[in-house]
Putative lysophospholipase candidatus thiodiazotropha endolucinida
Amino acid sequence: MTCGVSFVTVFVVYWYCSSVLALLLLFFSLSGLVYQLGDWLLYHPEQPPHSRLYVPSPSLVGLPCWEAPPVHTRDGLRLHALFVRQPPDRFGQAPTLLYLHGNAGNIGHRLHNVAGLFHQCGCNVLLVEYRGYGRSEGTPSEEGLYKDAQAGLDFLAQHPGLDATKLLVFGRSLGGAVALDLASRPEHACRLLGIVVENTFCSVPEVGRLLFGWLRWLPDFCFKSQFRSIDKVPRVRVPVLFLSGLSDALVPPSMTQRLYQNCGSPMKRLATFESGTHNETWLCKGYYPTLSLFINDLVARQKEQKDAPEWPSDQTCIHIPADII
């Protein structure tokens, strides 16, 4: 009888341990799959089709002065870029934006927006193509995109004839997360006059769980690319303009507002656009005047305090009613 009880006990323990082990193996296998799948869900360089092959030219939207310089990253990749320049008599005095786009398409798909920044805000604009997008080399990754933005900033800081004291970064959606990372690092923030962040998420795990309900069961470490802007934004000290489309059906507007609330900069502004969608907020009435006012205020403040501008406490919030240009 004792032998029989011992056998049953061993069998139950073995069955229990085997079941637990099998469940753990299944969990970690699925976690590993999701870990790799996450980047596939996040980065879409092939959407729309042929985005890796055809990059529209600035000439198609009437931008006369531009070049396509190669931008080299610190880890040895060659990135495609488009540099839209103000006419020679204004180029050296104009502020310059480093433009970081979202997770799909290529830099050529943003040229209508860039034309507005060029004409209505008077900016030079450098569009740097992320690795693995458009005509750039490499494969996209979180750390890789950070390096790509740093390469764009390096290019502008070393460009002859450009006023390197008037450099700003503009980032939409995923690009906003890259911009916030750049601004949170003192070695790069010291070169920035300010940044503009549009319709950006707090982190990939958080927005991923909202978009794909089945991801809510997975811990954060299962996400390969995390872009944890909500953790970085308290370290940002340069002026920031947050732009939020309240009709954004992809990234909840509350995320941009949380980034604004947690931002560590004394000069931070939030502009909400009632009819603004995730990718088309730039079509809203008041969009370019809001940007232009922010940039002009920074340039004027810098002119007053050339050595080290002390940014005033400015937490302006404005709301633009529903009206499309």
Remarks:
- The two ends are 88 Å apart (CA to CA).
- Residues 2-320 form a domain with the Rossmann fold fold (CATH 3.40.50.1820).
